[in-house]
Design brief:
The chain has helices spanning 12-28, 31-38, 54-62, 81-94, 100-113, 116-126, 228-264, 276-305, 307-335, 347-359, 364-376, and strands at 131-134, 150-151, 156-165, 172-179, 182-189, 195-199, 209-218, 220-221, 266-267, 270-271. The chain is an alpha+beta fold. The chain has a domain at 229-376: Butyryl-CoA Dehydrogenase, subunit A, domain 3. The chain has a four-stranded mixed beta sheet with strand order 1-4-5-8, with helices on one face. Helix 1 (12-28) runs parallel beside helix 4 and helix 7 (228-264) runs parallel beside helix 9.
Length: 380
């Protein structure tokens, strides 16, 4: 096993990237600005709109965030996986509505395709072309061979992809489809003829989700000879780490906001934070966040340096982050008392994002079941 670098390979360049991202999002996507943007209408029958600031998206493209993990040969920066994890953490901390996280995930899948077509798609991502994955079928299966979309010899696609994240924000999709060779990946433009996008209603106000229906849709083949499943499997540790890092960032916001409230809210002539029933659970939230963060960065480092261990470590990170997401959200609502569950309190934005994130690519129980199979073997 190769030795991992110190501090998970998180060097000066990665620190500068993280710090600049944190400052940018604090300046341009503060909690009050976020609430005004996505939660202006509290009515349950409000229109199902995709609300995000496309001007901010262009600014982060200009800052080079989409190019972070694109190889230099494709016009990117070629930074290690931990750089993308740092960006995902800051996106989660701000609950930033954008296609950045899904574009970063698509980058790792395209990197694994190892084809001229995939390199061209990576070059587009480096210049800011938002991209997301359409790899989940209508039953919610996302395993590398679960697709029900069919591809003919001309690269025309027919079928359905469900639970596509940030679909209305993206210009192109990486689609898994079954060809005569097995499962392959195809690049499809969002404005392709025959493609229908049906938005879902989800609780997370900072993301959108949709169902894509393909009817003789033209796609550019990214893999050959049924290598699509292999490419998805290779990228899966990075996809899990990105989700774990997003939950870590959101958990950090929930913890800090709740701690600040516990310091200022007075009950029985004492700040709430004085009482053990409040302070002890908050310490437990902090410990869970630290555990999830360490596991996420460890798995991301392994993705670059010990790929044979990456999937196991990534499932550990996602499992811990899932538990932390649920616990941090529940404690934040509980300790904000009578205002914690109201629309006017910003906590609900992060609560809903955490609940959405923790089921994506499998909840904690699912991850631990697969971990058990990997560590002790499948039951006979």
């Amino acid at each position: 096993m190769a030795e991992q670098p110190k501090n998970f390979g998180f060097g000066e360049d990665e620190v500068m990237l993280r710090d600049s991202a944190r400052k940018f999002l604090a300046d341009h996507c503060s909690s009050d600005k976020l609430h005004r943007l996505v939660a202006d209408d509290y009515h349950i029958e409000r229109p199902n709109e995709c609300i995000w600031d496309q001007g901010l998206w262009q600014q982060i493209v200009d800052l080079g965030w989409t190019a972070v993990c694109v190889p230099e040969a494709a016009g990117g920066i070629g930074m290690p996986t931990v750089a993308a994890i740092a960006l995902a953490e800051e996106v989660g901390r701000a609950a930033f509505p954008s296609p950045l996280s899904v574009t970063l995930g698509s980058t790792f899948v395209l990197n694994a395709c190892d084809s001229a077509e995939a390199t061209a798609a990576l070059a587009d991502i480096a210049t800011g072309k938002a991209t997301t994955l359409a790899i989940t079928d209508a039953t919610g299966q996302w395993s590398s061979d679960a697709t029900t979309i069919q591809a003919n010899n001309q690269g025309r696609l027919d079928g359905v992809a469900a639970f596509v994240q940030d679909a209305r924000k993206c210009e192109q999709f990486v689609v898994s489809a079954r060809s005569e060779d097995g499962v392959d990946l195809y690049l499809v433009s969002a404005d392709a003829a025959g493609l229908t996008l049906d938005p879902d209603r989800i609780i997370d106000l900072t993301r959108d989700q949709a169902r894509l229906t393909f009817s003789n849709v033209e796609g550019v083949r990214l893999t050959e000879a049924g290598r699509g499943a292999k490419a998805l499997d290779a990228a899966m540790p990075a996809l899990l780490c990105l989700l774990a890092a997003d939950m870590v960032g959101a958990g950090e916001w929930l913890l800090q906001t709740t701690v600040d409230y516990a310091k200022t809210r007075v009950q029985f002539e004492r700040p709430l934070g004085f009482f053990q029933a409040v302070k002890h659970p908050l310490v437990n939230v902090m410990l869970q966040i630290d555990n999830a963060k360490s596991l996420a960065y460890n798995a991301a480092c392994a993705f670059d340096h010990n790929p044979e261990e990456a999937l196991k470590l990534a499932r550990m990170a996602k499992s811990e982050a899932n538990d932390m997401a649920v616990f941090s959200s529940s404690r934040a609502v509980q300790f904000h008392g009578g205002i914690g569950f109201t629309w006017e309190c910003y906590v609900h934005l992060f609560f809903k994002r955490q609940m959405h994130s923790q089921v994506m690519l499998g909840d904690a129980k699912y991850q631990r079941a697969l971990l058990a199979d990997m560590v002790i073997g499948k039951a006979a």
